[in-house]
Specification:
Blueprint lengths: L6 H23 L1 H8 L3 H29 L2 H19 L1 H4 L3 H29 L5 H30 L4 H21 L15 H5 L2 H30 L5 H25 L5 H21 L3 H15 L2 H12 L5 H33 L1 H12 L1 H35 L1
Length: about 425
């Protein structure tokens, strides 16, 4: 099959990452209408957000082996179906269930399974497409999560403001059309096998015991932690610590972070994805600086700049880790990607929770501003750990190169 045939596949994958952005970011934006119309509490909102990530992690781990055996197509189509079905249940929760929160929870579980499947499958689908520019392809793919996040935030916020809180159902139905369309796209798109024909699949147990892979797993956990603390807490920080109005925190804070994350991925992809190890180390260093700046500055504009800077810094960290693992273990199949996705989701769930606990604990004594600043300062440990892990990965690469050079020299001597 010609390479050009896979352009259809790439478009479907891009739209799949927009679907992922919808199922992750839509619920928090709908909190105000859900609270005003149905009395949904902060605690219940927290449950919905936590369930979203927990179910995604579970899906990542549960479906990897099945996708290797049965192929990606049925599961990536199922992901769109579940995302659409979950959003539909979410919309009609008040009509289908005596307790609306039960319906919202069931809808969340359904579209979160779909989100987990998308995160598991779309990276290996793109990675399997026959092209030499793997790093660029993966970074462009991940940029569509950022564009989707920005679109979900801005469009949903503007429509709620102009149409009114009671219109939230119609807004969700609009977003539902995207996974519905993508069901058709993935049913037609060619999907290359994750492991090349004639090559034996590498067992996941062997991959999971490898030191290099464990370092990559540590890196993707730290990358996800660095990304999601700022992504989920920047709005609150901009309002309560930097002194901006809420609408500025919701749009300028979160959207600037997402925009710069998307821009960073596009720039790196257009550069040809060169010097990945150095780029990942530099990104972690820049993220460390951004978190420390936002923790210690009293200038609102500097805090906003640090938020945007952090988005740029973390832009290639998650996709870059996926590329490192895919390049080192090309015969690992979907099972390896499932473990990477689960690790990233674990970091995305744990780190914002930790930041919230730190902020809550400190704010009781010293107020909200001090609590949020301390949370940002503690979060700086995540990119710091990633820097240390990247130094070890570089050492692994150096040792491997020296080993290959020694073997090549030995072979030449033997021939002589």
């Amino acid at each position: 099959m010609k390479k050009a045939d896979y352009r259809y596949t790439v478009r479907a994958c891009y739209m799949g990452y927009i679907v992922l952005a919808i199922v992750i970011n839509l619920t928090p934006i709908l909190f105000v209408p859900l609270q005003s119309l149905y009395g949904i509490t902060y605690a219940q909102l927290g449950i919905l957000i936590s369930v979203n990530f927990i179910v995604q992690v579970t899906s990542d781990l549960a479906f990897g082996r099945a996708a290797d055996v049965l192929g990606a197509r049925p599961f990536v189509i199922l992901a769109q179906v579940l995302a659409a079905a979950g959003l539909m249940v979410f919309v009609f929760a008040a009509d289908l269930f005596a307790d609306i929160f039960t319906g919202l929870l069931i809808g969340t579980i359904l579209f979160s399974i779909g989100g987990g499947l998308l995160e598991l499958l779309i990276n290996p689908i793109v990675n399997a497409i026959p092209t030499k520019e793997k790093i660029s392809a993966i970074n462009i793919l991940h940029s569509f999560y950022s564009w989707g996040q920005i679109a979900v935030i801005i469009v949903t916020t503007v429509l709620i403001y102009t149409w009114g809180a009671a219109s939230w159902r119609q807004i969700v139905l609009l977003w539902l059309t995207i996974p519905a369309i993508n069901i058709f796209l993935f049913s037609k798109a060619p999907i290359a096998p994750f492991v090349k024909e004639g090559k034996q699949k590498m067992p996941l147990k062997k991959v999971a015991k490898n030191k290099y892979f464990l370092l990559v797993v540590l890196c993707i956990i730290m990358a996800a932690a660095s990304e999601h603390v700022m992504g989920e807490w920047s709005s609150t920080f901009m309002e309560k610590a930097a002194g901006f109005p809420k609408i500025v925190g919701d749009t300028a804070g979160v959207c600037m972070f997402a925009l710069m994350m998307g821009v960073g991925r596009i720039i790196y992809a257009k550069s040809g994805g060169k010097n990945l190890l150095n780029a990942l180390t530099a990104g972690a260093g820049l993220a460390l600086a951004a978190y420390l700046l936002i923790a210690f500055t009293n200038n609102g504009m500097l805090a906003l700049t640090a938020c945007a800077l952090c988005g740029f810094a973390v832009s290639i960290m998650w996709p870059g880790c996926i590329v490192l693992a895919a390049d080192r273990f090309p015969r690992a199949g979907a099972s390896m990607f499932s473990l990477l996705a689960a690790s990233g989701d674990a970091g995305a769930a744990f780190a914002p929770w930790l930041a919230g606990m730190v902020a809550q604990g400190v704010s009781v004594v010293n107020g909200d501003q001090a609590g949020l600043r301390m949370a940002m300062m503690i979060t700086a440990v995540f990119p710091l750990i990633m820097i240390a892990a990247m130094i070890m990965i570089k050492k692994e690469h150096k040792n491997e190169k020296e080993y290959k050079d020694e073997n090549r020299d030995l072979s030449i001597d033997d021939v002589r």
